[in-house]
Amino acid sequence: MTAQMSTAPAKGTVLNFNLGPEEITRITDRLISNGKAIQDRVATQSNPTFANVVVPLAMRENEQSSEYYLITFLQNVSIDKDVRDASTMAEERLNAFEIESSMREDVYAVVRAVFNNASEMDKLGAEDRRLIEKMELSYRRNGLALSKDKRERLGSIKKHLSELETRFSRNVNEGDGFETFTREELDGLVDDFFEGRETKVVDGVEKYIVTTKYPDIVPVMMKATNETTRRRMLFAEETRCPENIPLLQEAVKLRLEVAQLLGYRTHAEYKLELSMAKAPGAVLAFEKDLRQRLDVLADKEIKEIEALKRADKKAAGEKYDGLFSWDFRYYSNMVKERKHNINDDEVKEYFPMKEVTRGILEIYQTMLGLRFVKVEDAAVWHPEVELYEVWEADGKKFTGHFYLDLFPRADKYNHAAVWPIRPGFVRADGTHEFPVAAMVANFPKPTASKPALLKHSDAVTLLHELGHVLHSICSTTKWARFHGTATEGDFVESPSQMLENWGWEPSELQKFAVHYKTGKPIPAELVKRLVAAKNEGAGLFNLRQVFFGMFDMSIHHTEDPNVDVKKNFLKLRQEISRFENDSNDTWGTSTFGHMMGGYDAGYYG
């Protein structure tokens, strides 16, 4: 069932992304003013009930969330710096207001009165009961039981933390690095890597510009035969955004202070209380057990990689000097190619973006009983963005919208992620508001002679992120607070991690993996080799994920306010990942956005 095309106006309420700085500021002012008015009214209730206290507060979340998400989303995708600046400022102001709101004693008093009223609570259905329980817990966790001076300190810290996190993210988005190389220095890269690539004259020599965005840096780290080239490229990546190190350092210190003000030993203890894991001990035990199991695989994999590098050094007449962080992707890929006869440059010819997107959307349509309709000439934030309507398969029930923004550009968010632009919820009149989600990624762009071609791993990423999109679209809740991926933090990734497995099903791959020139399906024998190579290097690859999780816990499950984030990152990466760091000073943690994007004390999930 192929996604259909529609030239008719999009169904449902379509969001307006064509906002200027002044309009963003006006919306921000209105959201704050309206929010304060609602809270003021609620706080004066003399006979607090679920209907006159909790419902107005939750309806505010419902009705204002889409505007909040929209205007704060633009900082990640807009090509207009003034819009990005206004979006960033809006997020800082709105977050500061929400922090103030979460610490209002007068509002908490009436919420608490409802929570303690057994007759009121007994009337509630499951979602309404969960709503007030979460609301009351949130107020308590925001320090309403503290003395006034401690509450004021807590509020001040939380506002500043929000500002630090926003600045960190903005710096990463706008802080791309680059290196310049001759064609000889990029030996091992295929011809289409150079097609349309910008050049720059350096000391009288024309060189190719290679940025730190994924479609540039990943092929270089995987394919460049020149070790110095790989080292320089990784150095460019790991010396980006030096201004972010003090931001993260300060955030870690402030998070600990917040936790201890609230009676917890560490930030991880505070954060994990709401997770499925519940406590740092469970997370550390999980990571330790996983590391031990992966070390067994990694011992064998390291020997294979070391043998390959020793052979390369011998052939070049050079002394073997160990395995370094810039060797990981290159030699891991070489092992896969030699053991399984898998060449990513051959494979990607069967993964043209257009066909992969069509095929993956068909998988989700079939599995979930949906129909996707692409809206032509849609109002979007960039010409490359696509808008889709989502319907039940029979076409009778509209379900929501999603946007796809899949190619890199300057100053855009530079990883892959999904934003819930508007949650679904039940309006005051009983009708349903339709959800909207946006996927943002940085897949290779088309060239003058070839369409956009994906690695197989890119196709798996597309499956993963679209899993988040459909988690949002298919969710049905009364309250926006619980919609889509607004689950316990260590469950958020689970659906998408499971849905990735469709990318390894031979029967599904052969439906959409077709050669970009001939249209012939990917050969069954190549699919067989792909699947056979699925777990090649799994030990080292997953140890890298364990490293990220252990680094997270090392800076967030400690009572030391001055724990060195830069030192810990480098030390643990070398110990756990098995590859040595550069002898030159680097700071890879400065672009580890998860630590300032909501995954603090939660990366393990």
Brief account:
The chain is an alpha+beta fold.
Query: How many DSSP H or I helices?
Result: 21
Radius of gyration: 25 Å
Largest sheet, strands/sense/barrel: 6 strands, mixed
Spatial arrangement of strands, main beta sheet: 1-5-6-7-11-8
Helix vs. strand class:
alpha+beta
What separation lies between the terminal Cα atoms? Answer: 34 Å
Low-pLDDT residue intervals, each spanning 5 or more residues: none
Helix amount, in percent?
40-55%
The shape, in one word, is globular
Instruction: Please tally the β strands and state the result.
Output: 11
Structural notes for this entry:
The chain is of the alpha+beta class and 605 residues long. It has a six-stranded mixed β-sheet. Strands 2-4-3 form a three-stranded antiparallel β-sheet. A hairpin with a 5-residue loop joins β6 and β7. α1 packs across α4 and α15 packs parallel to α16. The model has no long low-confidence stretch (mean pLDDT 95).
